[in-house]
Amino acid sequence: MYKKLILFDxxxxxxxxxxxxxRRPLRGKDGTVTSGISHLLGELEKVxxxxxxxxxxxxxxxxxxxFRSKIYPAYKANRDETPRDLRIETELAREILPLM
Length: 100
Known about the structure:
Elements: E1 4-9, H1 10-20, H2 35-50, E2 54-59, H3 67-71, H4 84-96
Parallel strand pairs: 1-2
Helix pairs in contact: 1-2, 1-4
């Protein structure tokens, strides 16, 4: 039985890592920007190692419109479109996190 539950805002942490290194991003061998993924996985590993008795749950926004957009059409309406590099990183995160 777990003694603690930790909810991990994956997209918030991914975005922070991506934008923290926006001027000199980390890149994979193929040129893919990996700053956000690197930051996300590092933070997640630290939380897990610092809290071995905890169940750590990684959560993030659903990629398509949700009920919030249906209830309130202006939800996130003023946000710029997500940059291509960041979209790729979020897709990679959705593939990597279940493997952990």
